[in-house]
Amino acid sequence: MRAVILQHERLEGPGLLEAALERAGFDLQIRFREVRPGDEDAELVVVLGGTPGAHEPELALLLGEEIALLRERLERGLPSLGICLGAQLLAAAAGAEVVPGDEGIELGVLPVVLTDDGHEDPVFGPMPAVFEAMCWHGDTFAPVPGATLLASSERYRHQAFQLQGSYGVQFHPEITSRMLAGWFDAWEDALEAGGRTRESVKAEDLPRLTMALPHLAGLLERLAEHFAGRMSRSP
User: Fold this and answer.
1) Which residues are catalytic?
2) Predicted confidence (pLDDT) per residue in 14-27, tens digit
3) Sign of CA dihedral 182, 11, 127, 113
4) Between vectors from CA 39 to CA 221 and to CA 144, what angle results, nearest 5°?
5) Does the reported pTM lie above 0.90?
6) Among 32, 80, 154, 206, which one is most buried in terms of CB atoms within 10 A?
């Protein structure tokens, strides 16, 4: 089984997701800012996060290609996973508008709350009713047509959704403590724009992420098993 992973930033790799997909039987093809012919036929496409917004012109051509790819896969019933920016692109592919959030930048390891549907979902259901995850975004999206909302946060309602076997998560379940520390060092200006300092997030958020990692790793394992299971049930 082939899993194409589309990466937008050098520091935003698949993290914990890489091993989870490999254990589920996927052969990973990690790409940096590139969509290739044939990606539409892969057993799984994963679109990771990134600094540009889905509605911004910085990488407009690439993001347009990714939205078109995700839209075709939705039309064909092939699964995809979107994380942060990737979730916004998956929402856009399904017809939802992606916009700058009214509540500003959501930044830190913060509580995420399951919805009633989230409790019933086989992937999200085993999570605690309230769990913590790394959030770092200022954009959000309107309700995704046909999707099931699985999780929300205090600031932004759309934190996770499921659509035709595909999943979008606005938070970062894949991130490791080492990755997060690298983000804090590399994007200090962005931290300040979110009202935080490198010292505060390292002191406050890194320990919270360490505590949250077992639940997030379990979520990734169930996602990987879900996508692998869909392939085993395909004719």
Assistant:
1) 84, 172, 174
2) 999 999 999 999 99
3) positive
4) 65
5) yes
6) 80
pLDDT digits (tens, 9 = 90+) for 72-89: 999 999 999 999 999 999
Please state which architecture CATH assigns to domain 2-233.
3-Layer(aba) Sandwich (3.40)
pLDDT value at position 56?
Answer: 65
Task: Write the CA distances from 35 to 66, 89, 93, 193, integer angstroms.
Answer: 7, 14, 15, 31
Backbone dihedral angles phi then psi of residue 218, each to the nearest 5 degrees: -65, -40
**CA separation for the pair 71, 130 (Å, rounded):** 31
DSSP of 175-220: --HHHHHHHHHHTHHHHHHTT--HHHHHHHHHHHHHHHHHHHHHHH
Lookup: tokens for 220: 């990734």
Closest residue by Cα to residue 156 from 91, 221, 95, 64: 91
Distance linking the first and last C-alpha atoms of the chain: 14
pLDDT of residue 114: 98
Share of the chain above pLDDT 70, in %: 95
